[in-house]
Amino acid sequence: MAKPRLFVTRELPGGWRERVSRYYDVEVWPEYTPPPYEVLLEKARGADALATLLTDRVDCRLIESSPRLRIIAQYAVGYDNIDVECATRRGVYVANTPGVLTDATADLTWALILAVTRRVVEADRFVRSGEWWKTGTGWHPTMLLGFQISGATLGVIGMGRIGRAVARRAKGFGMRVIYHSRRRLPREVEEELGAEYADLETLLREADVVTIHVPLTPETEGLIGERELRMMKRTAYLVNTSRGRVVDLDALTRALREGWIAGAALDVFPQEPLPPDHPITRLDNVVLTPHIGSATWQTRTKMADLVAENLIAFAEGRIPPTLVNREVVKVRPPGFH
Ligand code: NAP
Ligand code: GLV
Ligand code: GLV
């Protein structure tokens, strides 16, 4: 019997291809940029399985026009680019890559927290541009003063895997941690993390650094807008490594320009790549990175391995280990039949 056909929308690191090739006929999109939507539509039409990235739009039109499609294995933990409800209805399994990228993303969040509060990127520019040279002094009591995070309050919005990893690291910096999620954590987890529950408004009013770790959903889209930014302290910082559309970028740009808050660090944007002429790129009190939360060799390889495990489990008639849509099992059993 012919092997099921797998279309992978980008070359992934590590040895995943060899393992998956025992089960699938594999085609990999060879370009650095994503396949255009029309191409993806065409490839999906002939595929039994897809391995996708967050840059691929997997909407209901695509799912419904792909009669052979049985599984979508996303190379990311977030899957807001996929119409999961539609996939479930059509008996299509959706899997993601949770857990293996938690530490890498929490580490980058900390890199951003430190970079923005201690003005690391601005200071680097100061040295390279010759501004430091021009001051004529190697050290000055008030040169590039920042905000000290030890003893300050960290506010975590979305206390899931990454939010908790960020909170754990805060202990090393001697910070007080408050958090907000829809559900409060069990008391023993709060104690282990050293974190107190707060409603969103209290968190925004009290935190010196607000860091966002919610998935993008209809409920979290625009969660942080003008109203919320105006609740924050004028001395506070906003860090976002979740999804760009959780924050109203235009409101944030105004907040930074007009001093409603002290600074921001962003790894994610409503439009990616961020257009280089966006007004936020002209502000000094902001640190910008190009969606690199999980970007370490170790993590990106583990993510590819987990995509392979999900695809292999499904091909063997088992439930993929990190299945997103549990209910799909009632629509169709796993496997190619
Ligand atoms: P997770 O374990 O599912 O955590 C998400 C948390 O958000 C949960 O604790 C959830 O708790 C909370 N939440 C959901 N809706 C909420 C709402 N409306 N208000 C408040 N809290 C809400 O996910 P994760 O693995 O930590 O990943 C989080 C997100 O990070 C991903 O979805 C992805 O978009 C993003 N991410 C970005 C990068 C990057 O490269 N920058 C890398 C990895 C992940 P409740 O259900 O109790 O509300
Ligand atoms: C990255 O943004 C992810 O969701 O894994
Ligand atoms: C700074 O370099 C100091 O010695 O305080």
Question: What are the defining features of this structure?
Answer:
14 helices, 7-stranded parallel sheet, 5-stranded parallel sheet, alpha/beta, binds NADP nicotinamide-adenine-dinucleotide phosphate, 337 residues, 2 domains, Rossmann fold, globular, binds glyoxylic acid
Share of helical residues = 25-40%
SS element count, helices:
14
CA-CA gap between termini: 11 Å
- Which strand-content bin applies to the residues? 5-15%
Read across the widest sheet, the strand sequence of neighbours is: 8-7-6-9-10-11-12
Report Rg.
22 Å
Order of helices and strands: EHEHEHEHEHHHEHEHEHEHEHEEHH
CATH-defined architecture of the largest domain: 3-Layer(aba) Sandwich
Summarize, please.
The protein is of the alpha/beta class.
Please give a structural write-up.
Strands 8-7-6-9-10-11-12 form a seven-stranded parallel β-sheet, with helices on both faces. A five-stranded parallel β-sheet has the order 2-1-3-4-5. The protein has 337 residues and is α/β, with parallel strands linked by helices. The protein has 14 helices and twelve strands. Helix 5 crosses helix 8. Strand 4, helix 4 and strand 5 form a beta-alpha-beta unit. The protein has two domains: 5-100 and 297-331, NAD(P)-binding Rossmann-like Domain (Rossmann fold, 3-Layer(aba) Sandwich); 102-288, 3-Layer(aba) Sandwich (Rossmann fold), CATH 3.40.50.720. Helix content is 36%, strand content 14%. The model has no long low-confidence stretch (mean pLDDT 98). The chain has helices at 16-21, 37-45, 60-64, 84-89, 102-117, 120-128, 131-135, 161-171, 187-193, 200-206, 226-231, 249-258, 297-315, 328-331; strands at residues 5-8, 25-28, 49-52, 71-74, 93-95, 153-157, 176-180, 195-197, 209-212, 237-240, 263-266, 286-288. The structure holds NADP nicotinamide-adenine-dinucleotide phosphate and glyoxylic acid (2 copies). One glyoxylic acid (GLV) binds next to loops.
